[in-house]
């Protein structure tokens, strides 16, 4: 009688890291101490002793992204925005956020947040936005006060285009560089003005107007610009322009999600490289789910 050797399932490869090892690499990339005091970064759920073979990176820890993570068999979902920014007393599955926690825990998928610590890092979130716009000579708009010896760290970036271009052409460059959203790209200023020096801030950057003006930027690219801050910034710039100043900065407003999404690919690369330096291997994937909440833009009458 012939005997057969049963096919044995392969034990976990020795090269797959534990979650604890992944967290060490992430901490080296963007230490939690670089986060703003109000922020909530780090591990939200997950067991550091578990093995991580696959990581999904996304901007938002929303239900559709959890679907994507679980369908991909991810052991770790690494996101930019905190799921639980404010204290909670329950993560019962009876709430939207509690349900996210339950789905991840039950599937054995950890959740980790790198938010304002990733903004401050170099490379960081605004670096990535600046680089897809082809800006050079990048410096932070607001250096990280807690690391005075590290002038490359901080919020926002300012740098230069290879050559001056019309504001309208620059807006088209922004539209081509970022993932598509219903909002598209909005411009405030003279479409024919020439711009070269560009300030950027991934996410909501309207607290940085003074820094943007001080940087000498011709145009500021950010997200979530509201009527009054945008209107007042343009009125001030135009008033100064009438007195002989440059009339800058012009404003380019994009969708928040789109402004931060370019960071994910570089973050995935740095994570894979950092683990490889330790002899560890993971699959890292960037989410393709568009989590911008706006799904439809109806053209104005006559548009
Ligand atoms: Zn954001």
Q: In summary, what is this structure?
A:
With 303 residues, the chain is α/β, with parallel strands linked by helices. Helix content is 32%, strand content 22%.
Instruction: Kindly estimate the percentage of residues that lie in beta strands according to DSSP.
Output: 15-25%
**CA distance, first residue to last residue:** 81 Å
Tally of structural domains: 2
Overall mean pLDDT stands at 94
Percent range of helical residues: 25-40%
Q: What structural class results from the helix and strand content?
A: alpha/beta
Tell me, what's the shape?
Answer: globular
Strand order of the largest sheet: 5-6-8-9-10-7
Task: Describe the model.
By secondary structure, the chain is an alpha/beta fold. The protein folds into two domains: 19-115 and 261-286, NIF3 (NGG1p interacting factor 3)-like (Udp-n-acetylmuramoylalanyl-d-glutamate--2,6- Diaminopimelate Ligase, Chain: A, domain 1), CATH 3.40.1390; 122-254, 3-Layer(aba) Sandwich (Udp-n-acetylmuramoylalanyl-d-glutamate--2,6- Diaminopimelate Ligase, Chain: A, domain 1), CATH 3.40.1390.30. The protein is 32% helix and 22% strand. The protein has a six-stranded mixed sheet, with helices on both faces. Strands 1-4-3-2-11 form a five-stranded mixed sheet, sandwiched between helices. The structure holds zinc ion. Zinc ion (ZN) binds at residues 80-81, 203, 256, 260. The site of zinc ion has 5 residues, from helix 9.
């Amino acid at each position: 009688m012939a005997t057969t050797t049963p096919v044995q399932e392969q034990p976990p490869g020795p090269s797959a890291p534990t979650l604890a090892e992944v967290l060490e690499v992430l901490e080296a990339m963007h230490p939690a101490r670089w986060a703003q005091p109000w922020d909530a970064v780090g591990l939200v759920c997950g067991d550091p002793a578990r093995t991580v073979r696959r990581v999904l990176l996304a901007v938002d820890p929303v239900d559709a992204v959890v679907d994507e993570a679980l369908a991909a068999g991810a052991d770790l979902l690494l996101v930019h925005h905190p799921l639980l920014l404010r204290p909670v007393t329950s993560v019962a599955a009876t709430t939207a956020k509690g349900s996210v926690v339950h789905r991840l825990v039950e599937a054995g998928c950890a959740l980790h947040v790198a938010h304002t610590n990733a903004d401050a890092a170099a490379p960081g979130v605004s670096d990535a936005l600046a680089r897809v716009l082809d800006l050079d000579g990048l410096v932070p708009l607001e250096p990280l006060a807690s690391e005075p010896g590290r002038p490359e760290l901080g919020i926002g970036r300012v740098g230069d285009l290879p050559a001056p271009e019309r504001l309208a052409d620059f807006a088209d460059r922004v539209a081509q560089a970022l993932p598509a959203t219903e909002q598209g790209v909005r411009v405030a200023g003279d479409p024919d003005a020439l711009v070269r020096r560009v300030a950027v801030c991934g996410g909501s950057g309207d607290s940085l107007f003074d820094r943007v003006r001080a940087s000498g930027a011709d145009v500021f690219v950010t997200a979530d610009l509201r009527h009054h801050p945008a209107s007042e910034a343009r009125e001030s710039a135009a008033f100064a322009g009438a007195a002989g100043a440059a009339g800058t900065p012009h404003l380019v407003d994009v969708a928040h999600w789109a402004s931060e999404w370019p960071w994910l690919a570089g973050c995935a690369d740095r994570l894979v490289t950092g683990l490889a330096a330790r002899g560890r291997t993971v699959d890292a994937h960037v989410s393709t789910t568009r989590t911008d909440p706006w799904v439809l833009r109806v053209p104005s009458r006559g548009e």
